[in-house]
Amino acid sequence: MNTRSRIAAALAAASLIALTGCGANAGATNAAGGDFPKKGKTIDLVVAFSSGGAVDTAARLIQPILEKELGTNVEVINKPGAGGQIGYTQLTGAAPDGYTIGATGSPSVVVSPLDPSRGAKYTRDSFQPLGRQVIDPTVIAVQPDSPYQTLKDLLDAAKANPKSMTASTTGLQTGEHFAMAQIQESTGSEFAPVHFSEGASQATTAFLGKHVDILVANVSDVVDLTKQGKARVLGVMTSERAPALPDVPTFKESGYDLEAGTTRGYSAPAGLPDEVAKKLEAAIQKAIEDPAVVQKMQDLGLQTSYLSGEDYKQYWAGQEEDFKKVLPLVQKTD
Amino acid sequence: MDTLNELMGGFAAAMTWQNLLFAFLGCLLGTIIGVLPGIGPVAGVALLIPLTLNLDATGAIIMLCAIFYGTAYGGTITSVLLNTPGEAASAITTIDGYAMTKLGKAGAALTIAAVGSFVGGTVATLGLVMAAKPLGELGLLVGPPEFFALMVVGISLLVALAGKSMVKAVISGALGLLIAMVGIDPVAGAPRFTFGMDRLLDGVSFVAVIVGVFGLSELLSYRKGTTTPNVHAPNLRSLLPTGREWRRSAPAMARGTGIGFGLGLIPGMTGSVSSLLAYGAEKKFSRHRNELGKGAIEGVAGPETANNSHANAALIPLFTLGIPASPTIAVLMGAFLQQGLTPGPTLFTEHSEIAWAIIASLFIGNLLLLVLNVPLVGLWTSILRVPTTILTALILLFMVIGAYTINFSVFDVFVMIGFGLLGLALRHLDIPLAPMVLTLVLGPLMERSLRESLEISQGDFGIFTSRPISAVLIGLGLLIIFSPLLKLRKPKALNEDPET
Predict the structure, then answer these.
(1) Where are the domains of chain B?
(2) Cα–Cα distance for residue pair A303/B260, rounded to 1 Å
(3) b/e per residue, B325-345, with b = 16+ CB within 10 A?
(4) Which stretches are transmembrane (chain B) (predicted)?
């Protein structure tokens, strides 16, 4: 009895190892691209932030249209942590066969490889940009019962008593952290950053529970909160007012010439076969520019601003130059 | 009164035959997906969202909610019968669930799990109806310091899981924390203990570790010839729990409901924390705590009730604040958005009929799940009639498939095998396995909340004692840790528990 069960177990193990081996080989050989995407083979869309945040929501909105365009399943996979680095590592580590694509956002994707202490295993060249979707400006919000009514009130107070107020970021060297560094450098106002590395919904939760004083976030994160009266947005870091928050003055209007925000798009691991890249780029453009998606993005406070893969690549390179200049600020403030 | 009227309206909307059909289909599909190893609720709901896109908003959300708790129950079936958790939240159920299967009581375990799921889910949904708004706000009181303090309470239950030797329990717990550290540092972004392997940047997969440590190591220990696989096919009488089992389950279900409900309200808490702490609570407070681990019904009733209570309570922050409290809820939130509904308080003002129909369907879905699963218990347990030789091989097959399908990665299969060997070694050394699982789940959450708290206080540890909720919780944790010491000082004759 015992011997038989032992043999049976060994046989099962052996056949399984053989089977999984076959599966891996089959996956590796169809990278040529002509028949991409194979029907029934799932495309993974890696989101480097937790579910429920803005990046995730955008990915989930385009997912059904990508499925229709490509004629196969597209599955959104969340790999949050370390300000996006975990997800980006997974994305760039995947085979460039088109079956793994990912949402890429700056500054996270641009900045994480610049700082050697983070030990990122990818650079800008590890990505093949496929299309830019939106630009989402940074905002500063206070609790509804806060004594500060204007941006100037708040920044003056933070200048008089540096680090007396806590402010949320979505992780070290994220857009919010960069924005805070920019503010500190040009105005001398300093907040104590609290890094919620799990993402925007964690930061928002802590702000709603009044565990942090100030919410540094993107326009899209605060539109609904403003409607509910749970946050008072004091300033938007763009040159023009955000359509979703028409009553909120820009930093420029308040006398601070500062701009910051996050950009989101989609990329694949570098080295896609041309034909595969073309198909993916076309499907992504269709999905981003789909009127229903644009409308839903607008409802969420996000302005669609499409760029093709090539233009997104140029834009990415430009951003890298800009961020290299301010990087010491972010390292210095922490 | 208003609430009741609106709820009745919701029932009227949910009780159309189409919506009932969607709820039924959802439960059935969810259960099947849950039975498939490796595919837990997150992947299950995500996979089935496309099915619902062409339905109207109410029908689609009703079906998805049904799929959501269907998967939660389905995961239990493989935990109990095959010692392979279908999803992380039912991992701890394998300990007593599979032990019951070996005693020929698989049917009772599955029935109790179904009833417990129903109780937990229904009570949590009642909470959603009666007091969603204040409860949602209550969850917000838990900031990073309170979250950390809760984790301290969780870790303190290690004492309860210790068994004979506290030192061995601490070794096991420390091992779990060490394994939890593997991967990218969540704050600074530097890789830790990855030995240059990219696969380890994400840390080791929890389900693969559990399947290895509990399932595989047990299978391997049969092969040594010390124990023989002793799985009895249940006879008809043993399909239903005995009166004694019902009575023993009731308090466990009550505790499980409370733990799952409380933790479910807190954004960022996962269902596996609830089921683990419910198991720990049984180990600590149940009248039959000495039987736990050897096939005690409490070890199934507590965690399974907590798991479902958590899943339904986690909908409260979604409905009241628009915050997805867990990964599965976030997938549901995506489905809401695709249907043009923004979850949050505005849902009740702008789409109140849909909101109430969904809530009504939660009650219906929980009931359907019970009606669907109790008669099926006989069908599921007939798996055990398969001869042992073949069944052992089948279980191994399920373990390998289960580990593989988590991330579709062969690496996880090796992780599972590696941890199977580690589990075997620990069994040899008589080191308990449960503390390791506890710290493995709580470790990352504890680290994150500790670091966030210290950023808020700018390095001052006083933040944990100066805030009332966290001070009370930390005090409770210390009390649990030191209570065995207090007991030791009593004269031996007064000591009720001969094993401590």
Answers:
(1) 2-496
(2) 40
(3) bbbbbbbbbbbbbbbebbbbb
(4) 20-49, 61-82, 108-131, 138-163, 169-188, 200-220, 259-279, 313-334, 354-376, 383-402, 433-449, 469-486
What is the per-residue pLDDT for B300? Answer: 93
Of B275, B283, B273, the closest CA to residue B257 belongs to: B275
B322 Cβ under 8 Å from any chain A Cβ? yes
Write the DSSP symbol of residue A118.
G
DSSP state of A103: E
Distance from C-alpha of B193 to C-alpha of A325, rounded to nearest angstrom: 32
pLDDT one-digit tens code per residue, A44-88: 999 987 766 678 888 888 998 998 888 888 888 887 766 678 889
Q: Is A9 helix (H, G, I), strand (E, B) or coil?
A: helix
ipTM of the complex: 0.76
φ, ψ for residue A48 (rounded to 5)? -85, 15
In this predicted model, which residue has the larger pLDDT, B184 or B30?
B30
Condensed to tens digits (0 to 9), the pLDDT of residues A256-289 reads 988 888 888 999 999 999 889 999 999 999 999 9
Residue A14 binned pLDDT confidence (cut-offs 50, 70, 90) = very low
Measured at the CA of B387, the angle between CA B383 and CA B393, to 5 degrees, comes to 85
Cβ pair A189, A159 in contact under 8 A: yes
Among chain A residues, CA nearest to B50: A64
Task: Determine how β-strand A166-169 pairs with β-strand A192-195.
Answer: parallel
Name the residue of chain A whose CA is nearest to B387's CA: A5
Residue of A nearest to B138 (CA): A209
Burial B103-135 (b: 16+ CB within 10 A, else e): bbbbbbbbbbbbbbbbbbbbbbbebbbeebeeb
The model's pLDDT over B254-269, given as tens digits with 9 standing for 90+, comes to 999 999 999 988 887 8
Among residues A305, A318, A187, which one has the least CA distance to residue A242?
A: A305
Q: What is the pLDDT of residues B276-298, one digit of tens each?
A: 999 988 988 888 888 888 889 99
Assigned token pair, B207:
């389900």
Q: Under an 8 A CB cutoff, do B400 and A16 touch? A: yes
Q: E strand or H helix at A185, and its extent?
A: helix A175-187
H helix runs in A72-150, sequence order: 85-93, 108-111
Specify the DSSP class assigned to residue A42: P
- At which residue do the structure tokens 């630009």 appear? A135
Q: Cβ(B156)–Cβ(B480) under 8 Å?
A: yes
Contact residues, chain B, for A91 at CB < 8 Å: none
In this predicted model, what pLDDT tens digit does every residue of B320-356 receive, in sequence order? Answer: 877 777 767 777 777 777 677 777 777 777 788 888 8
What average pLDDT does the segment B430-446 reach?
87
Print burial letters for B411-424: b (CB count within 10 Å at least 16), e (below 16). Answer: bbbebbbbbbebbb
**Which residues in chain B are contacts of A56 at CB distance < 8 A?**
330, 334
What local confidence, expressed as pLDDT, does residue A15 receive? Answer: 46
CB A222 within 8 A of CB A136: no
pTM of the model: 0.77
Contacts of A138 (CB under 8 A, 6+ apart): A175, A176, A179, A216, A217, A218, A236, A237, A260, A261, A262
Q: How far apart are CA B79 and CA B38, in angstroms?
A: 11
Give the best residue of B410, B417, B456, B458 to mutate against chain A (max A CB count within 10 A). B456
Which of the residues B55, B141, B185, B469 would you substitute to probe the A interface, choosing the one with the greatest number of A C-beta atoms within 10 Å?
Answer: B185
Say how many C-beta atoms besides its own lie within 10 A of residue A14's C-beta: 10
How much is the pLDDT for B92? 87
pLDDT per residue as tens digits for the range A210-256: 999 999 998 888 888 898 889 999 999 988 898 889 999 999 999 99
Q: Which residues contact B93 (CB under 8 A, 6 or more apart)?
A: B76, B79, B80, B85, B113, B275, B299, B300, B303, B304
- State how far the Cα of A302 lies from the Cα of B13, in Å rounded to an integer: 34
How many residues are present in chain B? 500
Following DSSP, what letter does each residue of B317-340 receive, concatenated? HHHHH----SHHHHHHHHHHHHTT
